[in-house]
Amino acid sequence: PNSEGARGELRRRFPQMVQRRDAELVGLEPPVTFGVPLEDLCNRFGVDFTDKTTGRWYPRLPPALVFLCEVMEREAADEDVGSIFSAPASSIYKLVETVDHGKPFERDIPSSSLWCILKIFLDCLPAPLLSFEVLEEIVNLGLSADDTEAQCRFLHDLLHYRLPREMSYVSLYLVSFLHTLCKTAESKEASRKRPPDCTKVPLTFALATRIFTPNFLRPHVMTEAWRRNLSAAHQMVETLLRSAEDDGLWIGRKRTLSRHKGANADVFSSSESEDGSGAASFGEGLKLENVDANILKLAEGLDLGSNELAEAGVAIHGCTDAS
Length: 323
Prior knowledge:
Layout: H1 4-12, H2 16-25, H3 38-45, E1 47-50, E2 57-61, H4 63-74, H5 89-100, H6 111-124, H7 133-141, H8 148-162, H9 165-191, H10 205-216, H11 224-228, H12 230-242, E3 254-259, E4 268-273, H13 308-311
């Protein structure tokens, strides 16, 4: 009872809805999801999660991120990413409240609405997942677009040693999810025996890069000078998406297989070891922001084929195509 750390860890085990009710009973402001710094989300509500697709274990992920991604992966939402900015506004308003208050999801939510809510959640984070400072460093490095080896070395150093742990884990979980859906879409296209549905926009690595780059890398304030250099950010994010399952980027528990001898000679078992790499915090002073009602306009009227696709979001105003 005298350990604040132990009390915080116990509190984290309770769902957000329980914590909201507790806050209401004692006269405190109920906790919300949108616009909250990532560190606070992870420490207050974070759930430890094992991805059944990859076998990787992620500590303290924001519940909203896990619920959204797991539902979309299960429902094969790769076919509906093209409608991310044209989901029904009424559906978006309702889902915003559901996620913000930590309520359970209803059944049969349109995948386009889930994509839109995921984008809104990421746009509302006060800082990009790879931090503000990293974009300037990437631009100054001037790495060649086709030098993926150098880009992977940079990402390895960033994820293992420089980002706060929660930022690294959330980034790796999100890119793993997007990587899985991009690969699923590729497999569908390769095995398709009839003409594709022209109303569907397949999820590709290029498209995922275009939509989500601002959530990984963006400047504090978008200027014309930054706009001219955004291709470097796109290149780095696409490399991260394509390399999401590479063991070299993984910072957590690593699975190893060992063969048993004797009677169990044909049986393999897996064990896990924790990578003890340290991580230094950027020490960024993040201010809790209220959710701007304008984010809900993401649900209305944006044309997927337009340049506005890369400009969507509340935290960035202008993102050009990767060259």
